[in-house]
Specification:
The protein has 15 helices and 9 strands. The chain is α/β, with parallel strands linked by helices. α8 packs across α10 and α14 crosses α15. Bound molecules: coproporphyrinogen I (1CP).
């Protein structure tokens, strides 16, 4: 009989879906649930095939395709959550912004003046990206694993809109915030309202958790983040107070901002690979932690992937932990490494005595 129960457990583990919502909501689970940022993407041949045929924007805007791509990594790996296939730029065309992908977002007409900001429109909630709501519904009917909805944080969206493209150190944007403080506040207000509507729509359609991606928060110093980052993030997260879903906040390269992050109304903070989870745990007391294996480690030999995954798991002990990478899956990541990572996470019993030391 015991064998049967074990079989059953093993089957459930292969299906995934264990404990993500519990851990994100603050439970110190016996195994760490796992999903990966950019788990649907270019490292998967089945993704590349669809992209060759349709192109990125069309994939995002076609609910059936977005749902299929969302489910692709779940068919391969026993991941414990799905993240909707879309992009942080998805809600912006409804504001009147033109966006191209090459492969990252490009804004041919960047926002620079008060008049540029004034020309942007505030769409109604149901106009923002109705195809995303439909994709959420389709995913929910196709899998019992929890679905994470997401949006870009206002500061990160503004960084793209003003700079015109991604990457680099966003010097133009950093100057602009301080040279045009009133236009900056107006732009961030507008992006905050759109983001609130966009996330509420996803939750109404069935998203069971939300993650706010602040990929470029780390380009700001603490004072600039305190003025142009945190207040708007707080407004977005507060607007979801009564939504009944765990709120996850990712700020990349933002170790210097952790004391400010500790004050935000998010249940879980996603930590990039630069800071050990054990250290984040002390600064972010009371929060669940998500993260934070360096995505580059997935290119190392299998034994290294397993060892570094376990090291990350040990650093995550002592409170709720959802395993993830410290940032998105990189383009040529070996698929076997992803499989090994997920298996290693699921095999690790967090409450077992022998696993309790942490050398980070
Ligand atoms: O599987 C998943 O994680 C879901 C899909 C997803 C998510 C959550 C995509 C698909 N994009 C995002 C969020 C996103 N997009 C972020 C936040 C997370 C992060 O920091 O990585 C950011 C900053 C973007 C902007 C963006 N879109 C980039 C980043 C680099 C840059 O130049 O600024 C890129 C490459 C894109 C395009 C994109 N979005 C998603 C994919 C799979 C791709 C690549 C398109 C392709 O060539 O196939």
């Amino acid at each position: 009989m015991i064998g049967n129960i074990d079989e059953h457990r093993r089957a459930a583990a292969t299906e995934g879906g264990n404990g993500f919502l519990a851990a994100a909501g603050g439970a110190d689970t016996d195994t760490a649930p796992v999903w990966l940022m950019r788990q649907a993407g270019r490292y998967l041949p089945e993704y590349r095939k669809i992209k060759e045929r349709y192109g990125f924007w069309r994939m995002v805007r076609t609910p059936e395709i977005a749902a299929e791509v969302t489910l692709q990594p779940l068919a391969r790996f026993p991941l414990d959550a799905a993240i909707l296939f879309s992009d942080i730029m998805t809600p912006l065309p409804a504001m009147g912004v033109r966006i191209e992908f090459a492969p990252g977002p490009q804004i041919p007409d960047p926002v620079r003046t008060a008049a540029d900001v004034a020309a942007l429109r505030l769409p109604e909630q149901d106009e923002i990206a109705p195809f995303v709501g439909r994709a959420v519904e389709l995913v929910r009917t196709a899998t019992s694993r929890p679905l994470i909805g997401f949006a870009g944080a206002p500061l990160t969206l503004a960084a793209y809109l003003v700079q015109g493209s991604g990457g680099g150190d966003y010097a133009t944007f950093r100057t602009w915030l301080h040279a045009e403080p009133r236009a900056a506040a107006t732009l961030l207000d507008l992006l905050t309202e759109v983001t609130i509507g966009y996330l509420r729509m996803q939750v109404a359609a069935g998203a069971q958790a939300v993650q706010l991606f602040d990929s470029w928060a780390g380009i700001t110093d603490t004072a600039t983040y305190g003025r142009y980052g945190a207040p708007y993030v707080r407004r977005v997260l507060r607007a979801l107070d009564t939504a009944g879903v765990p709120r996850i906040y990712l700020a990349v390269a933002a170790g210097h901002l952790y004391p400010q992050l500790a004050e935000l109304p998010a249940e879980m903070i996603s930590i990039d690979w630069r800071t050990p989870l054990s250290r984040a745990r002390t600064v972010l007391a009371g929060k669940a932690l998500q993260g934070n294996l360096d995505p580059a480690i997935l290119f190392a030999p299998p034994a290294v992937v397993a060892a570094e995954t376990e090291r990350t798991l040990r650093a995550g002990l002592g409170g709720p932990h959802v395993f993830n990478l410290g940032h998105g899956v990189l383009e040529h990541t070996p698929i076997d490494s992803v499989a090994r990572l997920v298996d290693t996470v699921h095999a690790f019993r967090r409450h077992e005595e022998g696993n309790r030391h942490d050398e980070s």
